[in-house]
Design goal:
3 helical TM bundles of succinate and fumarate reductases, mainly alpha, single chain
């Protein structure tokens, strides 16, 4: 088999020379928010199950979910829902063959980030 790496150089764009792009960062963030939403959903399911088990167990779960940590998780989950939704809409737009030019793809990335922050704040104020 031929030696593909003739010398001391990386095989693919290495982290020391690769410049992350907004589209790649928003794609990674979409995956992270999707997984984070699963964790938040498990916390909510635990709260409901605790309510059906006993009053003492519910008080424990309720203390966790209404603590500063629970409030932070719920607020970040609210942002993750909006971010994940807007990123999904962006991907549907891309699937139709539109918005694939570099400038427009970057604009859409900023719209997803900014839109998710604005919608999160508006939702939190409304609740």
């Amino acid at each position: 088999m031929a030696d593909v790496n003739r010398g001391n150089r990386p095989l693919s764009p290495h982290l020391q020379i690769y410049r992350p792009q907004l589209t790649s960062m928003t794609s990674i963030l979409t995956r992270i928010t999707g997984n984070a939403l699963l964790v938040a959903a498990l916390l909510i399911v635990w709260w409901f199950l605790a309510a059906s088990y006993s009053e003492e167990y519910f008080n424990l779960a309720n203390a966790v979910i209404t603590s500063w940590f629970g409030d932070l998780v719920m607020f970040l989950s609210l942002w993750a829902i909006w971010y994940h939704l807007l990123a999904g809409l962006r991907h549907l737009w891309w699937d139709s063959g539109r918005g694939l030019e570099l400038e427009e793809a970057e604009k859409l990335g900023w719209v997803v980030i900014g839109g998710s922050v604005v919608l999160t704040i508006l939702t939190a104020l409304a609740l």
